[in-house]
Fold this sequence. Notes:
The complex is a heterodimer.
Chain A: H1 23-28, H2 33-67, E1 70-71, E2 79-80, H3 84-92, H4 94-127, H5 132-140, H6 147-157, H7 164-171, H8 186-196, H9 199-209, H10 214-222, H11 227-255, H12 259-268, H13 292-302, H14 306-330
Antiparallel strand pairs in A: 1-2
Helix pairs in contact in A: 2-14, 3-14, 4-8, 4-9, 4-11, 4-13, 6-12, 9-11, 10-11, 11-14, 13-14
Chain B: H1 2-35, H2 39-42, H3 56-63, H4 66-97, H5 103-115, H6 119-131, H7 139-142, H8 150-161, H9 165-173, H10 178-189, H11 191-207, H12 210-216, H13 225-228, H14 240-260, H15 262-272
Amino acid sequence: MTVHRAPAGPARPTVRPSPATSVAGESRRPPSAMRRRRALVAFGLLGPSLLGMIVFFVYPLVMTVYYSFTTFDLSNSPRWNDFANWRFIVESDPLIGTATRNTLWFIVIMVPVRILGAMAVAWVLSRVKRGSGLLRTVYYLPALIPPVASTIAYVFLLNPQNGPLNVLLKRLGIHGPGWFTDPSWSRPSLTFLSLWVLGDVMIILLASLLDVPTEQYEAAQLDGANGWQRFWYVTLPHMTPILMFSLVTGVIGALKYFTEPAVASATAQGKSAVGAGTSTLLGWPDNSTLTYGQLLYAKAFGANLFGYGSALAVLLFIVTAALLVVVLRRFKAFTPEVAR
Amino acid sequence: MRHRRNLLAVVAENATVITLAVCFIAPFVFIVLTSAMSAQQAGTSFSWPTEWHWENYRAVFDKLPMLKYFGNSFVYASLATLFMLVSSVPAAYALARIRFRGANVMFLGVIAMMLLPPQVTSVPLYVMWTHAGLTGSLWPLILPNLLGDAFSIFLLRQFFLTIPAEYTEAARLDGCGEVRTLWRVILPMAKPGVAATSIFLFFASWNDYYGPLLYTSENEGAWPVSYALAQFRGARSVDWNLTMAATVVAMVPVVLIFFLAQRTFVQGITLTGVKG
């Protein structure tokens, strides 16, 4: 049996600046007053944002690199310290290994689980005939509320002694785990929470799912493809780019993962995740929820080690930049299209 | 036979849909039920409220200056949104509709800025705002929007690109300048996109935790509600019932806005997705 791999999916993005707009093209054409005026207007419109990019992006990046070679807190100006920060990262920081491993855990487990979950929910929604608008709202709603609120709610729902979930499990004769209070369950609990708020990814996947041309399904059906085969040979190829996009943005999300683990660890300890002492509450229990982004925050703003925090930031930037290159190469919407 | 299989499939599908809906809604139900319990009941094994204590919601406002927090959140989110519109709509238009040298670099910069984890630049920015004397307030989170918000620029540009180029060309042929074209031709057509982008930034600011943690943690008077909520459980040893009531209170505004502007919103989210 053959299945039409119909001209599957949109063609690979080949949006390159056409010769007419490339730099070479620009210089070939005689500069006209018109075009120069247009560039002037463009820079006028972009001016504030260009300034913003320099002040809030380029300048801080440069300064982060500079600070990473210094001993620095707010009361004393930065002093060169002979790579002490970098040596500490490589040789002796006891937490950086833990934080990196935890972050990797979230990248390898939580991100794919979340995308699979979102895909499954989107798939269910795409097949619903009546009430799909209402259902979409219901499935999406948790993604909307403040992460602090959803995290506190989950710490309550999953609290080991009296939480609704463990009470329910008990009725079924299951002894529920300690969830957020147990080092081996805290990351799965956060993953569980991330599934409740999967709506943001789900909506994007759903849009792409509904976008598959029906003729392709019909053609596949004529060829005798069953449901699974139609999914595998028609739906999936169509959705590969968007799935890749979700994956990359998910990984970046995991790299900066902060609010949920911070609030969960404080709330599960019965403490406040606000105020100056917040950094001492991070990672509980047993540093099991300490992510890289949290470690950076704790070092820089909790321990006032601005130089060391900057060194950690430089590493984070390098990893993110590598991912950015993948994103920019691969995705059409991120490719500068020719302005029309 | 075939008919029966279809029936089975329909039943299975409906069961899945309903089970899923229950899973997504159940947490809300538990939260609201707990928020109306007595402190004593909320501290024991979960069960249906024996008596209803809706006055818990009052207590939330009595225990903490919630109105102050709401005010802070509102100022933060609405000023950020307003400032973003002023700076980012023109920038997005320039990137979507004007050909000029350097446009590509500029656009790549926007993408990089949008995807960069905030922790990377936190230290120098914090130092900068300390020198400006603005730590302890929400201004370090509001003011940058005057100089463009990367995600909003990206999203607005996506919307502008969906408007057929003929309109801009016609306007230009008629002798409209770029600013007039943007104001008179593009903006009226891009209203849903502009609305969606505004809602996104409003929500992002309303829900923000990391920003207020950095800049306002020392000054309780500047705390926005989503941040202040994180102190509830710990501060003054508040019970779960009040914590859940506060949680509901913090959720209500976003949920309300969502229901009012649902269509715009969903359309917006869809455009953040990328067709490869």
